[in-house]
Amino acid sequence: MEKEKQKKRIIRAAVLLVIAALIAVWWLMPIRILKGYRPEDITKIEIDGISNRRVTLTDETVVRTIVDNLYTCGAVKSGISYGRMGTVYDMFLYVGDKCIRRFCVIDTEITRDSVFFYTPKRGDLAYNRAYLDELAEKYEKKD
């Protein structure tokens, strides 16, 4: 009888360890921001939050720079954003007229997508705040 109880405890502990390991891997595994799309699929980017206006980026060089960097970037979860919302820029990525991705740029190395904050694990983030400020200044006058 005692051996069966001990055996059940060992099985429960093993199951809990496996679940904890799976959660840790899921949390720490880098995600690809443009999963399912190739950089050449993206036709325009809209940035909202610049003087409460939306700026549309269609310049192929600018769009390609941002998208290539997003495509190669790996981001990891850095926290839950629930209750700590914040936005400096909202970015909308389009294929034709269809919006395929939306996320918020909070700071140079923090973005928010749905309920999680993300930070870069690898790659160059061209969508950092300083770069977006520069783009806003350049393209806001044209719109």
Characterization of the model:
The chain has two domains: about 1-30; about 35-140, Dna Ligase, domain 1 (2-Layer Sandwich), CATH 3.30.1490. It is built from three helices and eight strands, in the order αβββαβββββα. A hairpin with a 2-residue loop joins strand 7 and strand 8 (about 115-120). An eight-stranded antiparallel β-sheet has the order 1-4-8-7-6-5-2-3, with helices on one face. It has helices spanning about 1-30, 60-70, 130-140; strands spanning about 30, 45-50, 55, 75-80, 90-95, 100-105, 110-115, 115-120. The N and C termini lie far apart (about 80 Å). The protein is α+β, with helices and mostly antiparallel strands.
Question: What descriptive keywords fit this protein?
Answer:
single chain, 3 helices, alpha+beta, 143 residues, 8-stranded antiparallel sheet, 36% helix, Dna Ligase, domain 1, 34% strand
Whole-number tally of structural domains: 2
The structural class is alpha+beta
Number of helices: 3
Low-confidence stretches: none
Number of strands: 8
Task: Provide a concise account of the structure shown.
With 143 residues, this protein is α+β, with helices and mostly antiparallel strands.
Secondary-structure map:
Elements (H helix, E strand, L loop, with lengths): L1 H27 L2 E2 L11 E7 L2 E5 L2 H13 L1 E7 L8 E7 L2 E10 L2 E4 L2 E7 L6 H12 L3
